[in-house]
Amino acid sequence: MTPQPFDRRRFLAALAAAPVLAALLQACGDDDQRETTTGERRSMVARTTADPALAAAAADAVNLFGTDLYRRLASAAPTDNVVLSPASIAIALAMATAGADGVTLTELLRVLRVDSVDDDATDTDLHAGTNALDAALDARNRSGVELSLANATWLHEPLDVEQAFLDVLAAEYGSGVELVDFESDPDGARVAINAWVTERTNDRITELLAPDTLDELTRFVLVNAVYLNARWAEPFSPDLTRDAPFTTAAGDVVDVPTMVRQAELPYASGDGWQAVELPYVGDELAMLLFLPEPGFLPTFEEIFLVTDATQYLEPRLTLVQLPRWDTSSALDLAEPLVALGLTTAFGDTADFSRITTEIPLRIARVVHQANITVGEEGTEAAAATAVEGAAGSAPPEEEPITLVFDHPFVFALRDRATGAVLFLGRVADPRS
After folding, report:
1. What is the per-residue pLDDT across 301-349, written as a single tens digit (0 to 9) for each?
2. Domain of 254?
3. What is the pLDDT of residue 397?
């Protein structure tokens, strides 16, 4: 495996939720909606100015939900690589929550862990928090870091959509709806949606929706896309990269290109695991790497939380030996979401009446793709403060802690200010 040039798009994820209607609906003629010449319907409500104080609570909910989902996916495929974007999935489901009511709304809030952060939280709090988190993440862009989140909705053109739903999309998600004809040309709609995702992810995800994913019963599709391209605050030296053995989750011992770096880095340890954080340029985004003891990974994945490490990170001289990897996941999330408690949304008793009252809606599927490339110049990062603070000073007079990532490990790419996990995954085999 040769090093990837850094202008290749490093990290991204996209998610689509495709609820289905049972029949055709009549065209909508609400005076408060604006239909543009490009086939877009958008509320005239301006996007709400985000309250920064709400971002951290929203991030806590995203992380709890993401960890719940990761555990389901990891246990179902114990020898596979896993990568997902908790933020992307949570945002797309939050958009769906804007149209939900009754038991369906209650289940969505519970699965998204909104009630775990605040017992009295409502869907209004969810949308305001998501807007705040989106604004906080958008502020992370700088030279060496490109991070973007985008939301979009496609609706069957005759759908008589509730004004309140359009208002929430505009005010909290900066989104309108694109009008398409799912009944007569579902594949044309699929191609259009995939093209939008391809553009927003800089050609890293080109076919989020596979052929036959949509059909003549599809009535709307909600999509969130996340794209990240970031440089390490201090890159690994390519001259030090060498082949080294790695024992995969399947038990095979393989040689993989392994990077080496010694620096003062945030480090933590617990019962059966160690963690180190690597910083990106700007010290706002970081990759947290968990190294469980050999054989401890299944137990670790059942119990770990990102905060188990972040609250105990302390600068330590650390020698890191880390394989390069380039992997992807294509996930059908219906089953794990049902297992987490989102049961009515997929069935005939689903209540999405805040989207339309003309005909029942239910979620048909939730699909997710994510991929990640980690190399010497850029990858999901860690705490840049300690590394940058040590620049130009004499090395500490201490023996380094050595972390050799030569067996399966877990990573979390996070925003350090809010704590939001953008990407979460497991490297079971760096070759794939």
Report:
1. 999 999 889 999 999 999 999 999 998 898 989 999 999 999 999 888 9
2. 238-326+374-427
3. 55
- Cβ count near 338 (within 10 Å): 16
Are the C-beta atoms of 328 and 371 separated by less than 8 Å? yes
- Judge whether 293 lies within some domain: yes
Query: pTM of the predicted model, to two decimals?
Result: 0.87
Q: Are 24 and 160 in contact (CB under 8 A)?
A: no
Cα separation, 69 vs 235, whole angstroms: 31
Distances (CA, A) of 94 to 15, 169, 284: 12, 10, 25
Q: Is 220 in the same domain as 298? A: no
pLDDT at residue 302 in the model: 95
- Mean pLDDT, range 112-138, rounded to an integer: 91
Dist. CA 158–CA 24, nearest whole Å: 7
Instruction: Mention every residue, 6+ apart, whose C-beta is less than 8 A from residue 375.
Output: 3, 4, 6, 236, 259, 324
At residue 398 the predicted structure's pLDDT band, cuts being 50, 70 and 90, is low
Q: Is residue 4 in a domain?
A: no
Tell me, yes or no, whether 400 and 322 share the same domain.
yes
CATH of the domain at 345: 3.30.497.10
Q: Do 335 and 379 fall within a single domain?
A: no
**314 and 368 housed in the same domain:** no
